[in-house]
C-alpha cells in the first residue's frame, strides 16, 4: 500500500473522529422537556445532564494522554467511540430516572475526552510541516461544522421528544466502523512527530510547552465570555432575547470554520506573529461590544473573538507537536484538552472578580478585562518570541 493511500485512509479515520467530538452537550435543547418528564427531579440535576460531560471530558483528556502512550491509535479511538456510543444510545432503552441519564452523560463525556486527545495526536503523526498545520485547521472546521449540524438535528428531534434527541448519537456507530477500518493500528512512538535534533534545549522545550498550554487555557477563558455573556448583553441593550443570542453565537462557530479552512492564509499573512494577531482580533471584538450596541455589530464582535480563539487553538497544538516527541505529545495534548476545558469552566469566575476592577457595569468591566488580559498576552508573545522559538 502506497504512502499516499495510507494518508488518505488515515484522513477518513480523522474525519470520523471530528464528526463526534462535540456530542457531549447535544442534549441541552431537551432539558426543559426532561424536567417536565421528571418534575420531582432537582433542576440542578437535570441541568447537569448537559454540563457534566464537560467535567468528565476534562478528566478523561488528561488520563487518556497517558493511556495513549501505551496503546495504539485504533485501540484508543475504538475505546473512546464505544464510550460515546454506549453513553449516547443506552438512554433510548434505560431512562427511568434522571440519575441514569446523568450517568450516561458522564460516560459520553469520558468518550469525548478520549477522542479529543486521540485526534490531534493522530493528525500530528500522519502529517508533517505546513500540511500538519493545515490539518489541525481542517479538524477545527470539521468539528464546528458537524457540531452545527448535530445541534440543528438535535433541536428538531427534541421538539418531537426529548428521548428522540438521543438518536443523534447513532452517528457514533458509523464513526466507530470507520475508525476500525481506517484509523491506523500503530503506537504513537512508531511515528516520530518531531525532530529531536532541534536547536532548542530540553529545558527550553518544556518551558515553551508549559507557556503555550497556559496561553491556550487563557484563550478559552476569553472566548467563553461569548457563551456566558451574549444573552445578557443583548438583553441589557434591548437588542434581543435568547433566540437572538443563539443567532449571534453562531458567528463564533462560523469563525472557527473560516479560520480552520483559511489557517494557511492567516499563517502566511502574519507569520510568527499569528498568535499575537489572534489576540488582537479578540481585542477588536471586545472594543466593538463596548462602544456599539446593535445585533450585527454583536455578531461581528462574536466572529472576531471566535476568529482569535480559533487561530490560537489551531496554531498552539501545531507548535506543541514541534516541541514534543511522539511519546510525550499525547500527554501534552491530554493536558492541553483538560486545561482548555478548565479555562472555559473557570471563565465566569475569573471575570466575576476582575470585571469590577474596570467598571461598575459588569458587562463593560468584563470586556475591559478581556482587553487587558489580551494585551498582556500579546506583550508576552512579542517580547518572548514564543511562536518563533516553537516553530520548526
TrEMBL record:
The chain crosses the membrane at residues 49-69, 76-95, 101-124, 136-160, 166-186, 206-228, 248-266, 273-293, 299-321, 328-351, 363-383. Residues 1-389 form the Major facilitator superfamily (MFS) profile domain. It comes from the Bacteria. One of its GO terms (cellular component) is plasma membrane. Pfam families: MFS_1. InterPro entries: MFS (IPR011701), MFS_dom (IPR020846), MFS_Efflux_Transporters (IPR050189), MFS_trans_sf (IPR036259). GO terms for molecular function: transmembrane transporter activity. Keywords: Cell membrane, Membrane, Transmembrane, Transmembrane helix, Transport. It is found in: Cell membrane. SUPFAM superfamilies: MFS general substrate transporter (SSF103473). PROSITE patterns: MFS. It is a multi-pass membrane protein. The keyword GTP-binding does not apply. This is Major facilitator superfamily (MFS) profile domain-containing protein. It comes from Bombilactobacillus mellis. The lineage of its organism: Bacteria, Bacillati, Bacillota, Bacilli, Lactobacillales.
Amino acid at each position: 500500500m502506497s504512502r499516499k493511500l495510507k494518508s488518505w485512509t488515515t484522513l477518513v479515520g480523522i474525519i470520523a473522529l471530528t464528526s463526534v467530538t462535540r456530542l457531549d452537550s447535544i442534549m441541552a435543547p431537551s432539558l426543559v422537556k426532561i424536567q417536565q418528564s421528571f418534575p420531582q427531579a432537582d433542576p440542578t440535576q437535570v441541568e447537569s445532564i448537559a454540563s457534566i460531560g464537560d467535567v468528565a471530558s476534562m478528566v478523561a483528556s488528561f488520563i487518556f494522554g497517558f493511556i495513549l502512550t501505551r496503546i495504539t491509535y485504533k485501540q484508543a479511538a475504538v475505546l473512546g467511540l464505544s464510550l460515546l456510543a454506549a453513553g449516547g444510545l443506552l438512554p433510548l432503552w434505560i431512562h427511568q430516572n434522571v440519575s441514569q441519564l446523568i450517568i450516561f452523560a458522564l460516560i459520553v463525556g469520558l468518550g469525548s475526552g478520549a477522542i479529543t486527545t486521540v485526534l490531534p495526536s493522530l493528525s500530528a503523526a500522519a502529517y508533517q510541516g505546513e500540511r500538519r498545520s493545515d490539518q489541525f485547521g481542517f479538524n477545527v472546521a470539521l468539528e464546528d461544522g458537524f457540531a452545527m449540524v448535530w445541534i440543528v438535528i438535535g433541536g428538531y428531534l427534541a421538539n418531537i421528544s426529548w428521548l428522540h434527541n438521543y438518536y443523534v448519537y447513532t452517528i457514533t456507530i458509523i464513526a466507530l466502523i470507520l475508525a476500525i477500518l481506517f484509523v491506523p493500528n500503530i503506537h504513537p512512538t512508531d511515528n516520530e512527530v518531531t525532530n529531536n535534533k532541534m536547536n532548542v534545549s530540553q529545558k527550553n522545550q518544556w518551558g515553551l510547552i508549559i507557556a503555550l498550554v497556559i496561553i491556550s487555557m487563557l484563550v478559552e477563558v476569553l472566548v467563553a465570555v461569548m457563551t456566558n455573556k451574549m444573552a445578557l448583553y443583548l438583553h441589557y441593550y434591548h437588542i434581543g432575547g435568547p433566540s437572538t443570542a443563539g443567532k449571534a453565537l453562531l458567528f463564533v462557530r462560523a469563525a472557527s470554520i473560516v479560520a480552520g479552512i483559511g489557517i494557511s492564509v492567516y499563517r502566511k499573512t502574519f507569520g510568527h506573529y499569528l498568535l499575537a494577531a489572534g489576540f488582537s482580533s479578540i481585542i477588536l471584538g471586545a472594543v466593538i461590544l463596548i462602544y456599539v450596541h446593535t445585533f450585527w455589530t454583536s455578531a461581528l464582535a462574536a466572529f472576531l473573538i471566535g476568529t482569535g480563539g480559533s487561530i490560537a487553538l489551531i496554531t498552539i497544538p501545531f507548535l506543541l507537536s514541534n516541541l514534543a516527541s511522539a511519546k510525550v505529545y499525547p500527554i501534552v495534548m491530554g493536558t492541553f484538552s483538560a486545561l482548555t476545558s478548565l479555562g472555559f469552566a473557570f471563565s465566569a469566575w475569573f471575570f466575576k472578580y476582575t470585571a469590577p476592577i474596570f467598571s461598575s457595569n459588569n458587562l463593560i468591566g468584563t470586556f475591559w478585562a478581556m482587553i487587558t488580559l489580551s494585551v498582556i498576552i500579546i506583550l508576552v508573545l512579542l517580547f518572548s518570541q514564543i511562536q518563533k522559538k516553537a516553530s520548526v
